[in-house]
Amino acid sequence: MINIIVAFPKVENAKSIKNILIKYGYQVNAVCTAGARVLQHADALGEGIVVCAGKLQDMMFLQLREYLPTSFQMLVVASPNQWEEGTADGVICLSMPLKVHELVSTLEMMTHAFVRRRRKSPHASRRNEEDRQMIEKAKEVLMARNNMTEEEAHRYMQKSSMDSGTGMAETAQMILSMMQG
After folding, report:
1. pLDDT tens, 36-61?
2. Can you give the three-state secondary structure of 146-181, one letter per residue?
3. Strands 48-53 and 4-7
4. Quick check: 21 pLDDT over 90?
5. Would you give the distance in Å from CA 39 to the centre of its chain?
6. Measured between alpha carbons, how far is 116 from 4 in angstroms, rounded to an integer?
7. CB neighbour class for 177 (10 Å; exposed up to 12, middle 13-18, buried from 19)
8. Are 30 and 74 in contact (CB under 8 A)?
């Protein structure tokens, strides 16, 4: 689930946006009226999306974007004259009056892009390397205990993976835990 912070100068507006997002299946981690609070929550969460007004109680959205970690995207909901002066990287703007379907579809698009970017991150490839090592170790165990060739062990794991509806890494983990027990 993606972290979402909602920030508007009037708490009623922020809560309305929060309720809309919850209705459409999103989890809102924080509701704020000031940019300083957004930054505190962003530091604690590490990554996500900030849905905010063009102007908060203590700063404009461009200032907030400047201080936000790069792992956060921003969706600004404001009148066009507030965001026409320029936008920053990672900022998408929706104009007022806000249409619910525009908000939801834009957030859905941002969420998909966020997930794609997360999969391509170096952290994800490190996890894949760990998975590859676990798969190799499981194959070695199968080869040693069951007199299989590497190809036979790999095919066995693939078939087990497909039959159980799990990924290869999860199947490798199951094999290793069964062989240790």
Report:
1. 999 999 989 989 999 999 999 999 99
2. HCCCHHHHHHHHHHHHHHHCCCHHHHHHHHHHHHHC
3. parallel
4. yes
5. 18
6. 17
7. exposed
8. no
Q: Render pLDDT for 82-109 as a digit per residue (tens, 0 to 9).
A: 766 556 666 888 988 889 999 999 999 9
Contact 131, 138 (CB under 8 A): no
DSSP string, 80-142: HHHHTT---TTEEEEESSPPHHHHHHHHHHHHHHHHHHHHTSHHHHHHHHHHHHHHHHHHHHH
Q: What's the CA gap between 92 and 110, in Å, rounded?
A: 9
Helix orientation angle between 100-119 and 11-23, rounded to the nearest 10 degrees: 70
- Tokens in use for 1? 């689930």
HSE-CB at 148 with a 13 A cutoff on CA atoms is 16
Average pLDDT over residues 10-32: 95
pLDDT for 168-177, tens place per residue?
Answer: 888 898 888 8
Q: How confident is the model over 67-91, as a mean pLDDT?
A: 79
